[in-house]
Design goal:
Layout (H helix, E strand, L loop, with lengths): L3 H41 L10 E4 L3 E4 L3 H17 L1 H9 L3 H7 L1 H31 L5 H21 L16 H17 L3 H15 L1 H35 L5 H40 L1 H6 L8 H17 L12 H14 L1
Antiparallel strand pairs: 1-2
Helix pairs in contact: 1-2, 1-9, 3-9, 4-5, 5-6, 7-10, 8-9, 9-10
Length: 354
Amino acid sequence: MKEPSKTVSESVKYLGQGFLLAYYLPALVFVLVHLYVLIPASIGSLNLSREATKKLTLPLIGVIDLSSWVDSFLWSLIVGIALLVLNNILIRLFEGQPRWLKNGLLSHLTRRNQKECRNLYSKLASLQKKYLEISNQRPQSEDAKLESLRLEIENEHKRIEESKSQQTLPHNVERVCPTSFGNAYAIAEEYPYERYGADSVLFWPHLRTLMQEKAPSHSLRLTQQKTVLDLSINFAFVSGLVTVETILILVFSGDKHLLLVLAGVAFFLSISFYQASVAAIQGMGGLIKISFDYYRGLVLQAFNLRMPENLSEEQTVWLKLAAFIRRGDAFYFPEEYRDAKKGGNVTEEKKKDE
């Protein structure tokens, strides 16, 4: 087992590397484009002298030397920190989660995706719900009906797989987003609950922390994939900003050719990095699925609970444990699955000490 100090130092090192690559690099490109293209073009449109375009005076900030590399690196650091602070907001924007996007600007995409989701999964969800209701009652007379439902569910799965070679939408229509990025993320969030009854949003911070010590190589892969994701998001965002700013400056600037080229390149990069972010979130989703498939037992161990013998019981455990964490009342805790052997060993050790 690694020493705590070594684990902390490695985490800090990876965080530093991640910041430089995922936040500082896009910020540096963003600042350089402004200092050496957009700001001079804006000042040039005012017909100022050549010397006057080298310096810019801003309220509360002072004079910015557009020819100074020190200022470039300093402003890049400030913009990089701003991107880090805005990370969760940018992810929600890429998901299309804000109401003004989901039910406003992108409402037609939301409705289209929800309609496709219902066409694909509504019958399957109904069959699965009926199967669970009957199987939980376990009457002997219903065995034939259960077998018939199994066949129907299997046929429905085959129909879906033939029409969609790869899942692009979550099964739950409430999780559907207007963007490909948001739907890829929703699929990853939905997976642990559908398979094991584990709420991924609630249990992921617990599992992520435990894997840093118990599964360091997998934890490192998650960190690296998150860096790739953030890099793609930030480059897509700053490229989009540059595109909008360049188009606005084009209206007033006299040098059209360079700005037209810049607008085209920035727009292309914005679309390309958005597509890269979708691929990155799909990769991240795959790693999240593996985390729950292979390592979810670490969370139960941390709560001194044993892994149930079958999947139905395990789903019950996760649901009860989630209720206990959210609400705090002791009667929600799945006491019947407490690890008696582990508790017994602790009691025996106390007796020996006495």
